[in-house]
Amino acid sequence: MMEVLFCTWFIRNNDPREAVDRIVKGFRTRVDVGAIGSESEESHYFINVADIHLSAKAGYYAARYKRFGNLCYVIGALQAFMSHNNQDLRIKVNGGEWEACPQVTALCIGNAKYFGGGMKITPNADPSNGEFEVVILQDFKWYDFILKLHKLYNGTHLSVANVVSRRAHSIEIEDVSGSGKIFVQSDGEYLGFLPRKFCILPSAIQMIR
């Protein structure tokens, strides 16, 4: 699924002949990769989106419902909300000072735009510009998720109250309570819990485009 979502950044149309022609001619581009580090584990890498708290927990549950196609993420999100509480986090962007992020519902670090069965969660992300787009959802209730789901899918949620977007080439994230129970995932893979540090690796790999 994540490979398909990342390919949406490359696709110009659905003509298979054009795709073959581009492969034969070898049109290439370099793209960024995200790296995730922690004190106790080896680094992980991602090319689409890494996410924290509700969205990561939803992805963890959604893996159980893949037989429902793209709806699996909606089902997973609803199940995750049943045991969800917004949490106070703190972040350090680009090596600066620690900043408070109260009542975070989800925090998404986008190298590319899409995750969660096609949600355009980081709509301004570009995997060739050397930066993440970081989108933070704060103080969402379960009904906010239902009412604003269409905006999350079409990428128009940045105008919604309690949604913040910013640029970063590195971001460290910690749980203020130190509970060790804030989920982390990247490209649909469950990675464990906070704290974590995310860094961009500019032009790290070459791809046919």
TrEMBL record:
One of its GO terms (molecular function) is lipid kinase activity. One of its GO terms (biological process) is lipid metabolic process. It comes from Linum tenue. It comes from the Eukaryota. This is YegS/DAGK C-terminal domain-containing protein. Residues 56-208 form the YegS/DAGK C-terminal domain. It holds the Pfam family YegS_C.
